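Each lists chain and fold; for instance:
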Amino acid sequence: MKGILGKKLGMSQVFLNNGQLVPVTVIEVQPNVVSQVKTDVKDKYNSLQLAAFDLRVTLSNQPEIGHFKKADSQPKRFVREIRNMVGFNHKDLISVADVFTAGEFVDVQGTSKGKGFSGRIKRHNQSRGPMGHGSGLHRQMGSTGSINANRVFKSQPMPGQMGNVTRSVANLEVIKVDRENNYILVKGSVPGPKLGFLVIKQAVKKSVPKTPVELVVRNQESTVNPADGQ
């Protein structure tokens, strides 16, 4: 398993050489620092703790400052563990090009947009009641279960908080990896709002990469000499 932490910048589109338009999500991936290495002997499982995106010292507490001082790093805003990730040591800096290449498939995990308190029709896509003939049930709740149970069973679709939960999108193709500008283009959409933090992991269901696609390059410098008058 391998992975890296990033931040969603928004969506865009690119064109392939065959003229096909591909919607992509632009993800900023600054170099991740390995802030801790957990081993099977000491912690009962293997993982790397990655941290990204600097946090001001004034916004950090003393335990956080001491933890990142051991890694020779400034406190970070986003910290997550990637289980069974090998090949890196404590204090290492990991760039996106060290982990992924174009054509690979990834699973992207993020926190979905919060929609606030919502009813059953919006939250669970249920149908509304009759709108005429004296019906008093339009968008209200109907039956919540059998009368013999004398209680409401768990997992009953009911109004409540919608969104703001962890969600993952699987098998997204990596279109382009730019090490110089610290970003990665992923085909399709990913969970969360703009500037939301993301965990990008190696795809579990698709392990065989595709042939990298060829993108149309715009604004190429002309090779014609202006002195030639052409």
In short: Helices lie at 40-43, 62-69, 120-124. Residues 116-127+142-162 form one domain. The mean pLDDT is 91. The longest strand covers residues 3-15.
